[in-house]
C-alpha cells in the first residue's frame, strides 16, 4: 500500500512538471506572478505594467513568451483575447 501511495505522489509531480509559484520583480515592483518550470521559464500567470502596477496580460506562456490569454491596456482595462 505504501508503494502505491508513493507511486501516485511521484506521478503527480511528473504530471505537473514541478511547477513553482513565483513573483518576479523589477526595481521593487511586481512584473510577473504565476508559475514557472524547473528552469524558471514562465508557464502561466499575469504580467504587470511596472509603472502602473496594473495587469497587462493574464494567460499561458510558451517558451516564456505570451501564447494565449487576455491582454489589457496599461491601466488594466479593455480586455481582449490574445493568441500567438
Break the fold down into its secondary structure elements and pairings.
Elements: H1 2-16, E1 20-26, E2 29-36, E3 42-48, E4 55-62, E5 65-71, E6 80-83
Antiparallel strand pairs: 1-2, 2-3, 3-4, 4-5, 5-6
Question: Could you provide a short overview of the structure?
Answer:
With 84 residues, the protein is α+β, with helices and mostly antiparallel strands.
Q: Give the strand tally.
A: 6
Largest pleated sheet:
6 strands, antiparallel
**Which strand order spans the largest sheet, edge to edge or round the barrel?**
1-2-3-4-5-6
Overall form: flat
Q: What is the succession of H and E elements?
A: HEEEEEE
Number of helices, where a helix is a run of at least 4 consecutive DSSP H or I residues: 1
Which radius of gyration do the C-alpha atoms yield? 16 Å
Measured by DSSP, the beta-strand proportion falls in: over 45%
What gap, in angstroms, lies between the N and C termini? 46 Å
* Helical/strand content category: alpha+beta
Mean pLDDT: 85
Helix content: 10-25%
Low-confidence stretches: none
Task: Tell me what the structure shows.
With 84 residues, the chain is α+β, with helices and mostly antiparallel strands. 18% of the residues lie in helices and 49% in strands. It has a 6-stranded antiparallel β-sheet, with no helix packed on it. Strand 5 and strand 6 form a beta hairpin. The protein is flat. The model has no long low-confidence stretch (mean pLDDT 85).
